[in-house]
Amino acid sequence: MLINILVLLVILRLSFEKRIIESILRKQWQFLLTVQHVLFWLCFSFVTVYFYTYFVGFPNSLFRAGIALLINAAIYYLVFNYFVPAFYVTKKYALYIFYTMLVFVLVSLLRILTEPGIDGFSFIFIYTSQVVVILTASLLGISKHKFIIENDIKALEIVKKEADLNLIKSKINPHFLLNTLNNIYAAGNHTEDLQSQSVLNLSQLLQYTIYETAHQRISFATELQMIKSLTGLYQLKYDHQLDIQLDLPTSDWIEDVEIPPTVCFTLYENALKYAAIGHVPGAWIRVNANLDDKGLHFSLINSIAHPEQVRINDDYKGIGIATIRQLLNLEFGPEKYSLTTSIEKETHLATLIIQL
Questions:
Q1: Does the domain spanning 190-354 belong to CATH 3.30.565.10?
Q2: Coiled-coil ranges per the record (predicted)?
Q3: Mean pLDDT: which of 16-30, 47-61, 162-176 is highest?
Q4: CB atoms within 10 A of CB 137
């Protein structure tokens, strides 16, 4: 009977598959553990009382069953609350085995010597019951600490992810904010209307920098609007003479799709920088975005100024590409996106595909 109970508990424990109890363990693992304790002791108490009632008889059966339950409860408490955390969790397996065996032998001998009327079957029952108690306490104790460690690791991973995201954003934000202020300064000699438009674009970019980049994700529409605002500042600075073409969608889906902030914006800044737009005659940039069955597509193709000063090979990624990859890895995982760059002669192409 006791062996059947142990098998039942093992089956019960294994039946709580990770996929089923993962959500419970985040907040309710203590409740689950309590249920397992209660189930075990209900079954164990029933078997103990049944054994002593059947083989000893009233009135001594209840007294002896109570003493046996108290002794086994003490063993259970000792193994669960001390031996497992002190020895097993700290990987002192030899000490764990030594102390559990020591308790098992000493308590078994004490019960055999002190309990009256011990026969062969009672002898087997005492040993078996204590083996069941020690194994069950060990199983539940190990499970408890395993779940605690897993939850702690997950919590630390979340904290680390948030810290990494904040660090990445802190590197990106000052870069394009300073660039924007320089553009406003350069537009200072233009008409008041142009300056008003510059202030509006700056206001949008400041709002983006201060508020939007604090979010884990923003709408794709917001990201595209920032690209338009930065383009407007550049065009104002150079009297709308820049060869920049934005083929950006205006459909409703851009409000529903969300991406990490600064991803597309930083790619666009790279294109502005390496095309030396406004400084090199004939410099140009083309931007395209669309959505299909494979996901969100965002691509830029631009001319490259002064190719002898740029490392033109397969390893060229441009400033900010490594940071963008870190951000995308943290948010989506490497299997959920593709960011490729290539150079042909004096043309640079960057393509981002995000699976949605």
A1: yes
A2: none
A3: 47-61
A4: 24
